[in-house]
Amino acid sequence: MIMNQKSNVLKQAIGPISLAAIVFNCTVGGGIFRLPGEVYEIAGAYAPLAYIICALTTVFITIVFIKVGNSNSESGGPYAYVEKELGGLSGFITGFLLLLLGIFAMASVANALVEAVFVLFPSFASIGAKTLIIVTVFTILGLSNVKGVKTGANVVSIITFFKLLPLLILIGYGLTKLGGVYLENTITPSSPLTAVIRAALVLMFAFMGIESALTPSEEIKNPQHTLKKGLFIGMTAILLVYMCLQIVSQNILGPEIVALKHAPLAFAAERIMGPLGKTLLLVATVLSMFGYLSSMSLGIPRILYKMGKDKIFPEFLGYINPKTQTPNAAIFTLLLIVTVFSLTGTFSKLVIIANLSAISMYILCSIAAIKKDPKKPIIPLLTIVMLSTLLSSLNFSEYIGVALASIVAASIFMVRKKTYQMYQFKNSKI
Question: Residue 277: which residues within 8 A CB-CB, separation 6 or more?
């Protein structure tokens, strides 16, 4: 029996608008709903500079991804890009770090989503309710994604609209209240440059997501056109929304934003719109986190899929459902792992390590871009310089986690590669 070749090929159904929505949702998760207070606490009067640094860095990263991704239509995102230019080991380490980042980020956001729901409905707070919510969320996301990438992408687009609307209302109403004394910050760090760099490093967590949005590359229609248009639409929207939210919340709350940093946007909405405003922003927080999880559940399983397809991880992960043309095994495996981590704890302490993982991946992608087009190295080199500057604010202990993860990834790669080569050699003798 001859299998239809099309049944083993992922369906191309993601256009520019869908990609922009995926980028927006993968990037705008729960972080921005609390980071304005974190950034103000670190950088005080210089907080806006951290946004500028992150914005420039993100633009350069976006250009790097376009450079390395516009001719690469394989799923896996950075994993596929780096592997193609720098070889299997570098690509696998990149994919492994991205996979860990995705798992821990999704588990952390899932817990934050539950906490937001409990703030809205305090009487529901319990271990049983937490389990029910998390299992229900990931079941819904799993079923929507295995129906087909178009269904998953449409879910993301719908969530984007409902998530963005309350934020736009807060921005629109808040901008009419500008001019208050709170814009004159009272917190001034003793070492402004060091403070801004550290704040930018923390803030980069809110800008990360491009790497996850690009993992379903094989399912993007007309990649060269879609990547350029979709990425820049998504990133432009993100930068504008973030800057406005920082200005509005900082203006409304002033120095008090530090004490209210766990939910600064909700409290800012309460100050200018009353209890209804706070409820509206909390609902937006839940939708935002669900949107983030929906985008990540669309993108991160494609890493498992490609690793299974490349026979680095078990081959069943590279299986494509012939009816829906989706990697069902990878989707359910990933969501099962995330569900387990979500139910067993929170991972807020891993934010810096997650940032370091992502920044390391960005640097590898920049090196891949230089190798791909050595005649135009300026943007990738600037990207490496900016990312290295952010890393300069870390201490030695914060590098340990990623170093260990890289060693584990390299070990897995070498063992699986040797095992697969022995399997091929043994079969060739038959």
Answer: 170, 269, 270, 271
CA 375 to CA 36: how far, in whole Å? Answer: 40
Of the candidates 14, 15, 18, 28, the residue with the CA atom closest to the CA atom of residue 237: 28
Angle at 217 between CA 240 and CA 364, to 5 degrees: 75
Backbone phi and psi for residue 320, each to the nearest 5 degrees, phi listed first:
-115, 130
| Rounded-to-integer distance, Cα 261 and Cα 265, Å | 9
Residue that is written with structure tokens 């952390």 in the block: 108
Burial 143-158 (b: 16+ CB within 10 A, else e): ebbbbbbbbbbebbbe
Is-contact 413 89, C-beta < 8 A?
Answer: yes
For residues 277-292, give the mean pLDDT.
84
> Between residues 363 and 219, which one has the greater pLDDT?
363
What long-range pairs does 381-387 form, CB within 8 A, spacing at least 24?
382/60, 383/57, 383/60, 383/61, 383/63, 383/64, 386/53, 386/56, 386/57, 386/60, 387/57, 387/359, 387/362, 387/363
Q: Between these two residues, 9 and 286, which has the higher pLDDT value?
A: 286
Nearest to 360 by CA among 75, 45, 97, 83: 97
Which whole-number Å values give the CA distances from 102 to 36, 185, 387, 411, in the listed order? 23, 35, 20, 21
Conformational region of residue 319, where left means phi above 0, alpha means psi within -120 to 50, and beta covers everything else: beta
| CA dist., res. 65 & res. 388, Å (int) | 18
**359 CB-contact burial (10 Å; exposed 0-12 / middle 13-18 / buried 19+):** buried
pLDDT at 2: 45
Tell me the whole-structure pTM to 2 decimals: 0.72
Task: Return the pLDDT at 148.
Answer: 59
Closest CA to 300 of 101, 150, 119: 101
| Cα–Cα distances in angstroms (integers) from residue 31 to residues 180, 192, 271, in the given order | 26, 23, 21
| Rounded Cα distance, 337 and 317, in Å | 14
- CA–CA gap between residue 133 and residue 398 (Å, rounded): 32
